[in-house]
Structures are given as structure tokens and as C-alpha cells.
Design a protein that fits this description.
This protein is of the alpha/beta class and 273 residues long. Helices cover 19% and strands 25% of the residues.
Length: 273
């Protein structure tokens, strides 16, 4: 059995940043990445995805994003950045290595790989994320539904949905962004338990992340103090809020109306074109 110092499970941004921190402290991280390159799940995100934070606040330790620091990088820019970061990293990166199980032993941990093979590690960092195995809830009626059902992890672009009737379930950043994109080519409904909560992207001429960093709230452990952490708001420069509020989405005149219906989980609001 091969012995390693620290096994890092996942080669996305969290795994790469963890490996960098370990290397700076004299440890020898070995990254186990299931895909064929060290960019995490970013190559498989939907085509139009852009970061909700500017480049200057999205870089990993020791390597800034190139170009305009105030722009919001596109998915492909993030993939290129992570690949370049991995190339300069002082770590053993092993792609095509999917971890099947981790078990504690007397001296550390045993890391079992799919397809055979084990590693003995003094420590393990779990940085795999959830995108590779997204939650697909079992909803009543799905077994008899004849339409197409897919998770946001399976969505790429709106082309396959032209002229169709589409329901997007959720009120987060991705749900709103995908729904607005689909509404340009299809009849789209955004179904949520409560009205979408928005946060202004800019305050007093500065990006929200500037203020979060300046005040220290970006790193504050506020979640530990709250019994029920608040839902993450949708970061918006005004486009999505205006679309839902004024009855338009994106560049097209796609009318949206709000209707409230009672349900077993409480009232929910449905925005429908």
C-alpha cells in the first residue's frame, strides 16, 4: 500500500487551495481528482455561467486572475485559471482517481480508490463538493410524468428547450440565471417556496464583495450563531429584479406574473411568463 502525507480528495478550487496551504506549511499533499483534469466541476457547468464575484475577489492564494480585476469571469475563464493554478502548484495531482471510501486506522486513514488500490494517509482533506452527485428529490408524480426532468447539473444551454414549457424549481443564483436564459426561448416558470430574495451587487459604487471583505463578514463564522441560517440571496445588478418586477426577462418582453398558492410546506410564489 502506498503511503502519502496528506490525501486531498477533489481537484477543484477548494482542493487546490487546500493543497497550496499544505505545501506552504511543508506538507506533501496528494490530490485525488476523479475527472481528467484539475478543474473540479467547472468544465461541466452550464455554458453561460459567470461568477457572481469579481475576478479580484475570486482568485486563489498566490495567483491573481489576469485581466480586468473588476470583471466577472466566465466559466471557461475559471477553467483556464484553475488549470494554470494546478500547473504551478507544488503538489502531486492524480487525475482519473475517484475515491470510493475513507476509513480511519491506528496511524491515520486508508483511502480506497474505485477500480482498486489503496493509499495510507496521515491526514485527509475532503474537498470533493456536491456537484458530481447532485440531490434529485423524489417528488410525487415523477413516475408518471412524461416530460423531461433534469438537475441544474445536467443543464448546458437553452437550445434544446426552444418553444417548450419549462419549470425551474429554486430561488438561488443558478435557478434565477437559468430561468431568465430559458425565458428568452421558452415559456418558463420559476417555482419557489417564497419570493426571490435579492442582494444588490453594488453598494456606494463598490461591489458587495468589497464591503464583505473590508468588514470581515466574508470570513466571519456567522452560521454557528444562527439556529437557521438565512437563505442565500441572488446577487443582482438590477437585471433580474427588474425582470420579475416589471414583467420582462432579459432582452425580450417575456411577461412574468406572481401567484400565491398554499402548500404543505407553506405558501410559495410562482413567477410565470
Amino acid at each position: 500500500m502506498e503511503r502519502v502525507d496528506v490525501a486531498v480528495i477533489g481537484g477543484g478550487q477548494s482542493g487546490l487551495a487546500a493543497a497550496d496551504a499544505l505545501a506552504r506549511r511543508g506538507r506533501a499533499p496528494v490530490i485525488q481528482e476523479a475527472s481528467d483534469r484539475a478543474a473540479g466541476s467547472w468544465p461541466r457547468y452550464y455554458d453561460s455561467l459567470t461568477l457572481f464575484s469579481p475576478a479580484r475577489f475570486s482568485a486563489l492564494p498566490g495567483m491573481p486572475f489576469g485581466g480586468d480585476p473588476d470583471r466577472h469571469p466566465h466559466r471557461d475563464e475559471v477553467v483556464a485559471y484553475l488549470s494554470a493554478y494546478a500547473d504551478r502548484l507544488q503538489a502531486d495531482i492524480r487525475t482519473g482517481h475517484r475515491v470510493a471510501a475513507v476509513a480511519a486506522n491506528g496511524a491515520g486513514f486508508t483511502v480506497e480508490l474505485e477500480g482498486g488500490g489503496n493509499l495510507a494517509a496521515r491526514a485527509v482533506v475532503a474537498a470533493a463538493g456536491s456537484f458530481g452527485r447532485p440531490l434529485r428529490p423524489t417528488l410525487p408524480g415523477l413516475e408518471s410524468f412524461t416530460g423531461r426532468v433534469l438537475h441544474a447539473a445536467d443543464y448546458r444551454d437553452p437550445a434544446p428547450f426552444v418553444g417548450q414549457r419549462v419549470v425551474v424549481v429554486g430561488a438561488g443564483n443558478s435557478a434565477v440565471q437559468i430561468a431568465a436564459e430559458l425565458a428568452r426561448v421558452s415559456r418558463t416558470t420559476l417555482a419557489t417556496r417564497a419570493p426571490v430574495k435579492f442582494a444588490r451587487r453594488h453598494l456606494l459604487g463598490r461591489d458587495l464583495h468589497f464591503w464583505l471583505t473590508r468588514t470581515g463578514l466574508d470570513a466571519a463564522p456567522l452560521g454557528r450563531l444562527l439556529r437557521t441560517p438565512p437563505a442565500q440571496p441572488v446577487l443582482d445588478d438590477g437585471r433580474y429584479r427588474a425582470a420579475l418586477g416589471a414583467g420582462t426577462v432579459g432582452p425580450c418582453s417575456s411577461a412574468w406574473t406572481a401567484r400565491r398558492s398554499p402548500g404543505p410546506a407553506g405558501p410559495w410564489k410562482r413567477w410565470t411568463r
